[in-house]
Specification:
seven-stranded mixed sheet; alpha+beta; 159 residues; Alpha-Beta Plaits; single chain; 4 helices; 36% strand
Length: 159
Amino acid sequence: MPAKTTDIKSLHIDTYGEVFSFQQNENTDVMYAEEVAEMFAAALRHFKFSGRCEYLSGAAIPFLDILAVGILLRNTKNKTPKYDFWKEVEAFVQASMIGKSFEYLGMEYASRRALVGEIILHGTFLLEDGRIKSAVPSGLISDITESPFYNALVEQVDA
């Protein structure tokens, strides 16, 4: 059951979040953007995050097959999660990496202002207890169903 698409206010340009970097293992032709999106959707559901989320992804260094994923969050009190929350998300992602065709490189703090100019903004998502309630496409994604993150969120609702 897909989430409804409604108007959700985008996060402020000076909102800060985290960027996670991954590198595809040598000798694999597997596209891993979908797998990474599934890990982050599972993490937000595991931690029962409620609020607005913006998901960004793209090639940080294309010739090295490095994927950057930016996650910007504002909870229902319009607050950005504390560093401890991000460390828990990082640990969850690392635990989800077993048997994957890519490796985790690290996490760093970044602003929306820096991210939207570098990697693709998939949209703004409204979550309740880690489950998608609604979504609005943005950036280069005009159809929200083209976002691997949206599809991962919807799959979790249907599961």
